[in-house]
Amino acid sequence: MRWPSQSGEVFLLAGLCLYVLVVGVMPLGRLLIEALRPGEDGQAFGILFDVWQSRAAPRALGNTMIASVGATMVSLLIGGLGAAVLHLTDIRGRTALGFLLLLPMLIPPQISALAWIELTGPSSPLLRLAGLAPPPGTANPLYSMGGIIWVMGLEHAPLVMLATLTSLRALPRDLVEAASVSGARRTAILWRIVLPLARPGLLAGGALAFVAAIGNFGVPALLGIPGRVTVLTTLIYQRLTGFGPSALAQVASLSLVLVLLAAAGLLLRWLLLRRTSYLDRTGQPLDPFALGRFRLPMECVVWLLVLLISVLPLLALIASALVPALGVRLSVATLSLDNFGFLFSNAALRRAFTNSFLLAGAAALISALASFILGYLTTVRRNALARLLDLLADAPYAVPGTVLALGVIMVFLPPLPVFGVSLYGTAWIILVAYLARFLPLALRPVAASYATMDPALDEAGQILGARVPRRLVQLSLPSVLPATIAGALLVFMSAFNELTLSALLWSTGTETLGVMVFFLQYEGNSPAASALATVVVAVTLAVALLLEVTARRFAPSASLL
Amino acid sequence: MDQITLRQINKRFGNTAVLQDVTLSVEPSTFLALLGPSGCGKTTLLRLIAGLERPTSGEIEIAGRVVAGPDHWVETEARKLGMVFQSYALWPHMSVAENVGFGLSVRGMHGRERAARVEAALAMVGLEGLGSRRPPELSGGQRQRTALARCLVTEPELILLDEPLANLDPHLRESMQAEFRRIHRKTGTTFVFVTHDQAEAMALADRVAVMNAGRIEQLGTPQELYGQPATRMVAEFFGKGVVLPVDVAARLDDRTRRVSLGGVTLDLPGVAAVGAAQLSLRPENVVPAAAGLRPHLVGRVVDTSFRGADHLVTLALEQFGGKTIGLGMAAAPEPGARVDLAVTGGWVLPA
């Protein structure tokens, strides 16, 4: 029997439906239902009311709002200035500067937080070298709301910078020249032409930074828990680890607010970006403004600040990893690699390396393959169902990771139908969460690559009688392979050092590197935590470098800058 | 005093020489076209006058003031110009009235006075009452008019236009040409506009500078360029026709030469020296030869197309390697038919 010629496409669609709907959409739907369940006395939305009548929840919400708004302000300031310096001035070394400014985004939040702790605390090896450390016994000044705002603000500043750069790059040179011809001087041009046109991008980036801050777990976990500043994500974590799955319905109600806040931020972003669509993207890009005699002083200030916020914390992290034990003064004599040796002698840490490598690798492969097929069906075949799946695939990435993890637990805690075993407590549940969470990261570069491919290439193959699988492999793959690889690397990089999901899903035997950094620091073994973080950062930056080289050469849409 | 004077302008981008020894002066109230193929440097020349690029060497004077030179530099914003960009460069975050009023507001003019000037400029270009529109809501022609109003409102003595009609459809282009002529007459402002379209240059300008490979080939009125091209490039680029090799046998007077065209001796206007030269023939310089007389040229019909009043007949000149010339004829001959031609005019230019 011959299969009907459409069957290849039908199978592919069925597989993608399984992926996107079961792994991504079902957990979110289930969470919504649980959160809105009636209370024990049968009152409609009872659980929601109960939770929000407690004292802890509104206080955590208040803290989440203060921390997120504050961090967004920091991100707007640093990201906006960074974009302006990179695109509007002629200072030297702008490419290097751009990558240094992106660095905080590449480093996972828990490691950024750890690095800042090691930089500013009373046992800070760097500050002690300089004789500036706070006296022993005093609390680290970053264990506070201010610390959370600062570190989260830095972590998300690249989001603002990239969004602003996109706006500035879409600003044609003509518009500035026309203002010059009209008699406007540089300041007038900056305030009346450049700023108004860059503002939607700046604010849209701010909205993105706000959404990221709402869902951030790593920073408030490392800074807020010791500082007794509880935000919604850490409250959910503490409730769930304290009470176990019995608290699921309760924390689901807490997480609903996270979803609403994130949705509000994304809606704002959408409204802002909708207004910029008419900018002409074909004109020549802006020439940078010459700073003249102010260039050298400006360069000194900018480089100093960038080194301070991007490089110094990492140096503190490395220094702290080289100290033999907490509190020992760093010098050539005390320098030691023992902490790195510990990483490979400890069984749990060895497991964590294996787990994170395998989980991140599997997530990267599977999501890249799914993106390759979904992108084909959406962009080349313009299949309506595939386009719906493409839209839905964004949801698990748009909501805070904590929310997704809760939904995944709810769906996969009961034994699976047919197999009769539960995924909860195994590494599979973490993989499921990664697949849901990181699919959009692979999908975006692949879709952008498909968009530049002429659909007639595929249609020509179809006319010559080639079926979908052959067309996919022989006609589409060569065009989109670089973007697919870039997407896979992006997924690997994000999953490899991820904490938010695995913090809620791990169990003994399925530790991830993110979890181990968190626990080592929690146990007070910050030299070991720093050593582990140093290794994770090194792997992450190596992958990022590989990604950037691949992207620059073959798939510009996946390039970081 | 000239409106613009360019002396020995050179412009290099890296190792590429874009302009070479360009010298030019433009009298006030001129409508000057910078005409040439793409890459000839015409837009760069316009941008140099605007101050958007700096010359590598040479001097630029606007209204008697040196604005660019070895020791002089006047920024664009201080040159008091108007400019219409090819993309129109309307600021998308401002209304039409705000776009037009921008130049007045940077000059410190506000309130009623500015509103009145803006309204007058909009009326001048036929956009009365559209001041509150946003650029994305305008048609192509309206955007063009807005860009023009934005120039006119500050009453500059010099307006630069960079391919202003290139983005309009052909029908709109003609009505905008008429509009440019009217506004030029009315304001008496000097217009310098860049175009690659010789018909547009012919229709609009009273002076045309034909540019090629970074140099000015010829500067003159459209009539001079058409009737007395100085170089082969001008003859071929400006107007229709064909350029054929000839030998100048004798100089009959200042502007008449005896030439040999494929063995036929003719007396024709021109300035070339004795020896090898070229003959620029326009379509109206040849007519079908009277029967019985020796033809000056022999053509074969390669194509005919009906134009309404007559047929455009394209003839390949067999003696000259198949070069073609178009000829209006009342009846269309069959393709491949022989047509004998007589030369009634032309211009003999140096080889």
From TrEMBL, chain A:
InterPro entries assigned: MetI-like, MetI-like_sf
Alphabetical keyword list: Cell inner membrane, Cell membrane, Membrane, Transmembrane, Transmembrane helix, Transport
SUPFAM superfamilies in the cross-refs: MetI-like
GO cellular component: plasma membrane
Origin: domain of life: Bacteria
Residue span(s) of domain ABC transmembrane type-1: 61-269, 353-547
Pfam family, one: BPD_transp_1
Protein localization: Cell inner membrane; Cell membrane
GO term, biological process aspect, one: transmembrane transport
Entry membrane topology: Multi-pass membrane protein
Membrane-crossing residue ranges in chain numbering: 12-33, 65-89, 96-117, 142-165, 202-227, 247-272, 301-322, 356-377, 397-416, 423-443, 475-496, 528-547
PANTHER family tied to this protein: FE(3+)-TRANSPORT SYSTEM PERMEASE PROTEIN FBPB 2, INNER MEMBRANE ABC TRANSPORTER PERMEASE PROTEIN YDCV
Similarity annotation: Belongs to the binding-protein-dependent transport system permease family.
Name assigned to this protein: Iron ABC transporter permease
Species assigned in the record: Devosia sediminis
TrEMBL record, chain B:
GO cellular component: ATP-binding cassette (ABC) transporter complex
Sequence ranges assigned to domain ABC transporter in this UniProt record: 4-238
Coiled coil: none
Keyword Nucleotide-binding: yes
Subcellular location per the Swiss-Prot or TrEMBL entry: Cell inner membrane
Domain of life: Bacteria
Pfam (any one): TOBE_2
Membrane association type: Peripheral membrane protein
Gene Ontology MF terms: ABC-type transporter activity; ATP binding; ATP hydrolysis activity
InterPro entries: AAA+_ATPase, ABC_SmlMolc_Importer, ABC_transporter-like_ATP-bd, Mo/tungstate-bd_C_term_dom, P-loop_NTPase, Transp-assoc_OB_typ2
Keywords recorded for this protein, A-Z: ATP-binding, Nucleotide-binding, Transport
Sequence similarity: Belongs to the ABC transporter superfamily.
Name this protein carries in UniProt: ABC transporter domain-containing protein
Annotated organism of origin: Devosia riboflavina
